[in-house]
């Protein structure tokens, strides 16, 4: 070992002189400077499940917007002669041939009903001969609208309530929190049923009924974050410089609460959609003949044993929406959390 060490000889060519440019190059920061939002987007892009969910929701929302002006047929038009037709498309791929088993024999239901040639119902028809695909498009649009309007109540009521409660503190905070506890002690279903009994069942009454209690979670989360933020140095500096509480909330609190607000909003929308579907399923939600995912599920379960496709499609739609929103919310929560593992 000693002999090998003695064989190593150093000379002037063994060293390279370090120049000023080399020092600057070594100290140069190679990674780009990112803002908090840019870093959150970078984290979100790494979550494949969240990105796929985002694109699924974009497609569903686009279809819902299109359904406002166009559907394959009138979703409420009844053609009793065409009742309970199975799905059929032009190419006739398996499962969409328009044929069904009757008495152990496969028959063409479209030929039996004398449906004009070239007339197809992609997802079949219901017990009144209404196009299920058109009703599903309208149902998804209506359910999304209810979910977003109910979530708007969370934002309009929950954010100011939480900020005021956390910012004021003391007796104000105690009184406001006791009010929340009283409201949250009453089951949501009881409140909704009472509201629907007082008002005419419909879109407006359902949104108001869900909005009465739906803002509580948002208010509690915003209050907890406000209690932490109001002791930060930049907030104390703003107060020292004489900034009003309103300006501090707009300039400092709400921007720093944005991640909590966005994440809770993404969880609130599917919760509202599912709750509306439950109300419509038990018959106290959207009145006939309007379609929502809940009414489609309610109609489909009545004939599920014999015509299962009438329930499969709305069930698949609400499942995809619920899973996509929850996966996207999980992805946003990880993206906005600086301590989340890469």
Q: Which terms summarize this structure?
A:
MetI-like fold, mainly alpha, membrane, cell membrane, protein transport, OppC_N, MetI-like, 342 residues
CATH class: Mainly Alpha
> What is the number of strand segments?
2
Q: What count of domains describes the coordinates? A: 1
Overall structural class, as computed from helix and strand content, comes to mainly alpha
Would you write up a description of this structure?
The protein has 342 residues and is mainly α. The chain has one domain: MetI-like (MetI-like fold, Orthogonal Bundle), CATH 1.10.3720. The protein is 65% helix and 2% strand. The protein has 14 helices and two strands; from the N terminus they run ααααββαααααααααα. The protein has a two-stranded antiparallel ribbon. The protein is flat and about 90 Å long. The two termini are 45 Å apart.
Set out the fold topology:
Elements: H1 2-7, H2 20-27, H3 36-46, H4 48-69, E1 99-102, E2 105-108, H5 109-112, H6 132-168, H7 170-184, H8 188-198, H9 203-214, H10 216-229, H11 233-240, H12 245-281, H13 293-302, H14 309-336
Helix pairs in contact: 3-14, 4-6, 4-14, 6-7, 6-9, 6-10, 6-12, 6-13, 8-9, 10-12, 11-12, 12-13, 12-14, 13-14
């Amino acid at each position: 070992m000693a002999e090998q060490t003695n064989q190593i000889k150093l000379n002037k060519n063994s060293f390279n002189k370090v120049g000023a440019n080399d020092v600057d190059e070594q100290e140069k920061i190679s990674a780009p400077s990112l803002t908090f939002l840019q870093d959150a987007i970078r984290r979100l892009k790494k979550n494949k499940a969240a990105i796929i969910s985002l694109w699924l929701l974009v497609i569903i929302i686009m279809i819902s917007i299109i359904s406002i002006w166009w559907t394959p047929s009138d979703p409420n038009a009844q053609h009793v002669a065409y009742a309970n037709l199975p799905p059929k498309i032009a190419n006739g791929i398996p499962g969409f041939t328009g044929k069904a088993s009757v008495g152990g024999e496969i028959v063409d239901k479209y030929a039996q009903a004398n449906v004009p040639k070239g007339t197809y119902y992609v997802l079949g028809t219901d017990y009144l001969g209404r196009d299920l695909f058109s009703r599903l498009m309208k149902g998804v649009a209506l359910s999304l609208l209810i979910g977003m309007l109910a979530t708007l109540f969370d934002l309009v009521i929950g954010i100011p309530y939480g900020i005021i409660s956390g910012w004021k503190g003391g007796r104000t905070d105690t009184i406001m929190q006791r009010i929340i506890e009283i409201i949250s002690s009453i089951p949501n279903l009881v409140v909704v049923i009472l509201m629907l009994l007082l008002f005419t069942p419909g879109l407006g009454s359902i949104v108001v009924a869900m909005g009465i209690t739906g803002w509580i979670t948002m208010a509690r989360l915003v209050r907890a974050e406000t209690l932490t933020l109001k002791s930060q140095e930049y907030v104390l500096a703003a107060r020292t410089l004489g900034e009003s509480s309103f300006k501090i909330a707009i300039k400092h609190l709400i921007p720093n609460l944005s991640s909590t607000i966005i994440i809770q909003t993404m969880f609130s929308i599917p919760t509202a959609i599912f709750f509306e579907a439950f109300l419509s399923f038990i018959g106290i939600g959207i009145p006939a003949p309007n379609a929502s995912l809940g009414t489609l599920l309610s109609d489909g379960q009545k004939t599920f044993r014999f015509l299962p496709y009438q329930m499969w499609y709305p069930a698949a739609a609400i499942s995809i929406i619920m899973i996509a929103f929850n996966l996207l919310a999980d992805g946003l929560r990880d993206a906005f959390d600086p301590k989340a593992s890469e």
